[in-house]
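Two proteins were folded this term; both appear here.
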Amino acid sequence: MLLSEAGCELHQTSIASSARQRLREDLFQPGKAGARCLLDHPQVQEVVEQLRYELTTKGHLPPGSVAIQAIAFDKTAETNWKVTWHQDLMFPFAKPVTSPGFELSSMKDGIAFARPPKRILEALLAVRLHLDDCDEKNGPLRISPGTHLSGIIPVADVPELVRSHGQKVCLADEGIALLMRPLLLHASSKAIEPEHRRVLHLVFAPDELMTEEWHRRV
């Protein structure tokens, strides 16, 4: 699968195994599904720097791109969840948004979230760094190839788009990153045999002039 066509692509990172082990030790707590707003974490910032260099070199990111979001999540027997088909549309901002085109303003855990305009959403790149092997049994991500080209999709249109575009399962070994456009329709089922499925989910954005300020920029 290619990022430009399918909306996702696997990337072999050069993140060292020791760095991945530190992420597993520092970002996750037993019995919890994960944690948000991790861009201030030193280990996460090191990974951001390395991935930014790799992805800019390969042409997946424009020069000067910044990380605007970092989330860690795990799928275990205690935190085994299902996610229905959706797009990632809501992102964190420094304060409640007021500019035209920024919609659905809300607060979550004291942080302002909103849906940016379509042109900004189309420019974002999510990078899911796998910290464990992800196979068919532990609830892997499923994507509907090419749906990132359909803009912001009304909820009522999602089932038909998935039917027409089909779906693929995204399997990956530990250390592999899945590059994904947030507008790509994606979902996941509960794990059949729950084991750790730890992922560090980063979102990068072009460093362009915006009327609203991201919650964090690294």
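Next, the second protein.
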Amino acid sequence: MLKALEWFDRAVAVILRPVVFAGMIALTAVITLQIVSRVFFTSVSWTEEVARFLLIWITFLGAALAFQQGRHIAVTIMRERLPDGLRRIVTGAAILVAIAFLLTLAVIGWQYTGMQSFQKSATLRISMTWIYMVMPLSALIMTALAVIDLLRLLTGREARGGVSEGFE
């Protein structure tokens, strides 16, 4: 089972890296179009809305990618000085707290998406469901990654790199 979960872990990186990269390129292109159109022509009305929506998606998917790569900020100076057994317990407790937070974020994100489902964007007239759906989606991805970390820890292996590395 852990092999299948590790496959999911690697698949997250394989999928999210190009998606976030493409989002950054699209955001850069849209903002450039916005600036050029304002300076030289008539402002293109949809660029501000697209830029905002791209930024929302890049932020949440980028957070999931950073979680997968163990790149979220962690202050581990105290934990790293603990004996191995106690360090594993503290790490496991931290992962459980992260899972609780991420599941809460997923539930609240899903509820918020439902509350806003009737709303359409001002310029593009697309359902805001598509914009807000990234919150529960990315929270569930990060929850799954945290569960993988917990299972790694319970099977005697180290959790993801960012869980045992940090600023000192």
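Residues 162-168 have pLDDT under 50 and may be disordered. The chain has one domain: 2-164. These notes refer to the second protein only.
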